[in-house]
Write a structure and sequence with these properties.
Radius of gyration: 40 Å
Number of strands: 20
Strand content: 35-45%
Order of helices and strands: HEEEEEEHHEEEEEEEEEEEEEE
Distance between the termini: 35 Å
Helix content: 25-40%
CATH class of the largest domain: Mainly Beta
Number of domains: 4
Number of helices: 3
Largest sheet: 6 strands, antiparallel, barrel
Amino acid sequence: MRSRIVVAVLLALMAQQAHAVETFTVAPKQVADEKAVFATVESSNVIPARARIGGTVAQLAVKEGDRVTQGQVVGIVGDEKLVLQMKSLDAQIAGLEAQLAQSQADLTRAEDLFAKGTIPKIRLDEARTASNVATNAHRARIAERSVIEQQLTEGQVLAPAAGRVLKVPVTAGTVILPGESVAIIAEQHFVLRLRVPERHAQFLKAGDPVRINGEEFGKSGAQFGTIQLVYPQIEEGRVIADAAVAGLGDYFVGERIRVWVSAGERSSIIVPAAFISTRFGIDYARVGKDAQTAIDVPVQRGRDQPRPDMPDALEILSGLKAGDILVKP
């Protein structure tokens, strides 16, 4: 009775082990003939923060490497002439206010005298005209003062977009003209800019995947991106393309990273690296329907071919054929 129980337990364990065995069916797949090229981390847009008025840089609020938001003040440009014009207008407005008060008092007096029949209507019309002239002159000076205030406000140089400051080409005290750059800002959307030899241009199109070694920017394993734009102009024998990669750093602009791009496709056998074992320098794959019938078959290993659906993909040059069932060792 005891021996039967032991046999039953062993059979159950063997069945459980057989059920847990992982298998993989070999089938030919299309793989890319990858070519390694260098790409640089760049902003999709580099925008200058320009001064709207001329004058002297009174204050700089940012430095290289700072992150800014859209509309943030990056510097202040001052013009002493605007301050003098403001003082002159303030004095004129004060004089016009006194003149306006006098003309309104004269108009009130003229209206009372006209109502009593003391003065003719022409004197009333003259007083009313003088009051209107004084009112409009006062309004004109106030409008001129508003223009100067707006110019002083435009002395604040604002960031045109959110991003990181790449360069500040001026210092406090620098005299600049309207339209000159106070800071160069890289927009926060960063891309990989590839430069591929023009003979591979026919294989490069928007939507194609690219592969990056994650260790180059602090991640483990292969990372994948997608080509967003292929520029139509060829520069110095190279095609320019932008690729989007998730988690790309946004501090070092111009950093060079090695990227693998497709230069054509071919059919090959791709298997997960976990199904290949190496003993004494020879690579083996266990071929069979289950763990009991599987045999070790020597194979010739090719290049690693990581894919989004198979991060540890490995190319097998010989030793396997379509339809073989691999058992995980």
